[in-house]
Amino acid sequence: MKLLLPKANLLALLLILPALAFHASGQNRLVNYAHPFEPSEELIYVGEFSRLFLKKVDVADFRFTATREPRLTSGDASAQPGTRPYALKLTGDISSRGFFSRLFRLHFHERMESTVEPVAFTVQKTKRIDEQGKRRRESEILFDQANGKLVWVERDPTNLAVGARSVTTTFTGQVYDILSAIYFLRTQPLEVGKTFELTISDSGRLYRVPVKVVGKKRMKTVLGRVEAIRLDPNLDLPDGMIRERGELSIWLTTDNKRIPVAARLKTEYGTFDITLRKIIGNSQRSPLR
Fold first, then answer.
1. Which ranges of 154-211 would DSSP assign to H, the alpha helix?
2. In contact, 119 and 85? CB cutoff 8 Å
3. How buried is residue 120: exposed, middle or buried, by Cβ count under 10 Å (0-12/13-18/19+)?
4. Per-residue pLDDT of the chain (289 residues; tens, 9 = 90+)
5. DSSP secondary structure string for all residues of 203-269
6. 235 and 222 Cβ atoms separated by less than 8 Å
């Protein structure tokens, strides 16, 4: 039996989907939050694959962390009046796991780091490492929010003679990387029945993805039985981020923490379930208004 995995980046799948709810409330305003993931938080997930007689076999580990880090200098151009004396450092990490992954040689690892200004919640810089077998790519995006410009650069550290690839893209309005977007979502309210689009930057390109906020239901999770809201994005458009066709859903808690508790991707290859297993350092304080 040969296991086929879609070309979609699993880290991107988990991060992108809840991020799409940015406009779900119809509001785009600053909120004076002490964010529910501050001063630090770690979310741990497991990714499982099902196909025919195979039922929820572990294939990947996911870890997401949020921490504060001091600004490098008082002259930092991003430290404008009204900002805080620190930036948020958001990290996403995914790696293959388990006997099943070793059997079918599904070796991959991806790490993304995003630096965010915490008041306006604008992304300043993204770093990314992508390893698949012997292949390794390192990339960085610098966001110039004031001038509406981003610069993406990618290198192959194992073949420096090839040189770096670079793309400069202009934008208007709010643009996020896939990691900062999900954390921004957790500061926003959601409304069932909304259909909307969000602009996401990935590999130097901008993508607009339509999403529908479907409904709510009670779910059994590591947090106990919670009410969760479901989002269904459409990622397989002709010029979309994901080439493979499939049905994708994600569930977030409806409380003020907006914790992503589960995601499911159904494709012709099988079904991928991503489930929250543990939270470390999540404060029980409510956001300050």
1. 178-185
2. no
3. middle
4. 444 444 445 455 544 444 443 333 333 433 344 688 888 999 999 999 898 888 888 889 999 999 998 875 544 444 454 567 889 999 999 998 876 666 667 788 999 999 999 888 888 999 999 998 888 999 999 999 889 999 999 999 888 778 889 999 999 888 888 888 778 777 777 889 988 777 788 888 888 877 788 999 999 999 999 999 998 877 665 565 666 677 889 899 998 888 999 999 888 888 999 999 999 986 544 333 2
5. TTEEEEEEEEEEEEEEEEETTEEEEEEEEEE---STTSS--S-EEEEEEEESSTT--EEEEEEEETT
6. no
What is this structure's pTM? 0.79
Q: Report how far residue 1's alpha carbon sits from residue 74's, in angstroms, rounded to the nearest whole number.
A: 59
- Identify the residue whose tokens are 């989907």: 17
Return the SS3 of 59: strand
Q: Which tokens sit at 28? A: 């785009």
Q: Of 51, 43, 65, 40, whose CA–CA distance to 3 is shortest?
A: 51
Put residue 105 in one of left, alpha, beta given phi > 0 → left and psi -120 to 50 → alpha. Answer: left
Token pair recorded at residue 119? 């008041």
CA nearest 152: which of 189, 116, 112, 125? 125
70: exposed, middle or buried (Cβ count in 10 Å: 0-12, 13-18, 19+): exposed
**Closest by CA position to 231, among listed 16, 61, 11, 2:** 16
